[in-house]
Amino acid sequence: MRAVLFEDIGSIRVGDYPDPSVVDAKDAVVKVTTAAICGSDLHLLHGRIPGMRADSPIGHEFVGTVTAVGDEVTRFKPGDRVVGSFLIACGQCWYCAREEYSNCDQLWILGYGMFTGDLDGAQAQLVRVPIADLNLHAVDDSLTDEQAVFAGDILTTGVYICERAGIRPGDTIAIVGAGPVGLFTLMNARAYEPAQIFMVDVATDRLKLAEQLGATPLDSNKVNPVVEIQRATGERGADVVIECVGLAPAFTTALDAVRAGGTVAVIGVHSDLTYDFPIGEVWRRGVTIVMGATCNVQAYWDRALELVKNGTVDPTILISHTMPLEEAVEGYRLFESHEALKVILKP
Ligand SMILES: [Zn+2]
Ligand SMILES: [Zn+2]
Fold first, then answer.
1. Which of 134, 127, 5, 130 is CA-nearest to residue 63?
2. Which pLDDT tens digits describe the chain residue by residue (347 residues)?
3. Nearest alpha carbon to residue 136 among 71, 94, 75, 70
4. Ligand 2 center to 225 CA (angstroms)
5. 231 C-alpha vs ligand 1 centroid, how far in Å?
6. What whole-number distance in Å separates Cα of residue 134 and Cα of residue 224?
7. Whose atoms come closest to the Cα of 94: which ligand?
8. How far away, in angstroms, is 56 Cα from ligand 1 center?
9. Closest ligand to 135 CA?
10. Residues bordering ligand 2, an ion, CB closer than 5 Å
């Protein structure tokens, strides 16, 4: 088969790779019809995540058709349309029993290296999915591939962090970071009927899209977003701030922008080991901090797909480029340079 292969840090190519097959009774093999490039794929490419095997397939956002299943797969059969979860949970540990799949003892991720299960990725013509009953979700014919493909990752991440943030109707919300996760968070936050949503970023095209999606854009190159949010809230600050960047300055902005008694929820991926935390001030203001960590996909993707079906969320708005899998190197270049917001690959 053809697949996008990780060669080394900074280098991918499209090449031949052996077809996967069912190796465990709980496996399914899926013929990929649509795959997407995710920001976390860039972490591999930039060498921030170690352990990726040279010349192995990358990628974990996909929709496809089941071609083979192991004897113990009960929910799927060949011919079924499915979307896959980036997170491959075991379904048997203490956390999985509590439906906290993102805390699974196993914590495997498709196409993400030897420390996360050493599984081949899904930017390929075929992909093997372990524990298929838990890690695939059926896609009914009312949905296109493009509407469903993000349910296994960034769309559901938006649903998950809004829920964890405890948004209430009438709240003023601020979202820091207008990347794909920030924009999905925005689309989902609207379902809670907030009074106002601010979107903080520096990229004018992304802020423009956020504005089209109902947010008040705040370009932090031009204005002080904290001052603007305070001005709009009687000097109190936002009820809920959701940080979707994963860098210390963005978290600091979130702490500054939240009101006393409000909530800061963090879904941006932080890799710094420490942070100079203003504990006394945050304690005095009684701020609740929710660290989102990895999205609990399998607990929330039903709801995510329902929001797509009922028209609350249109994931296709974020797709800026669609191209053949063979052109994936160019797709990565466009995505890495921020010329593309979201790239779809067709194997
Ligand atoms: Zn991802
Ligand atoms: Zn588990």
1. 127
2. 999 999 999 999 999 999 999 999 999 999 999 999 999 999 999 988 889 999 999 999 999 999 999 999 999 999 999 999 999 999 999 999 999 999 999 989 999 999 999 999 999 999 999 999 999 999 999 999 999 999 999 999 999 999 999 999 999 999 999 999 999 999 999 999 999 999 999 999 999 999 999 999 999 999 999 999 999 999 999 999 999 999 999 999 999 999 999 999 999 999 899 999 999 999 999 999 999 999 999 999 999 999 999 999 999 999 999 999 999 999 999 999 999 999 999 99
3. 75
4. 40
5. 36
6. 45
7. 2
8. 17
9. 2
10. 89-90, 93, 96, 104
Distances from the Cα of 267 to the Cα of 78, 118, 291, angstroms: 35, 25, 7
In which residue are the tokens 């932080």 written? Answer: 270
* Nearest ligand by distance to the CA of 89: 2
Segment (H or E) for 124: none
- At 328, list the tokens: 């994936």
Enumerate residues with CB within 5 Å of ligand 1 (an ion).
Answer: 38, 40, 86, 153
What is the CA(98)–ligand 2 centre distance, in A?
9
In sequence order, which ranges of the chain are alpha helices (DSSP H)? Answer: 39-45, 94-97, 132-135, 145-148, 154-165, 180-189, 204-212, 225-231, 248-257, 279-284, 297-309, 328-336
User: Cα–Cα distance between 2 and 160 in angstroms, integer?
Assistant: 33
Question: What's the whole-model pTM score?
Answer: 0.95
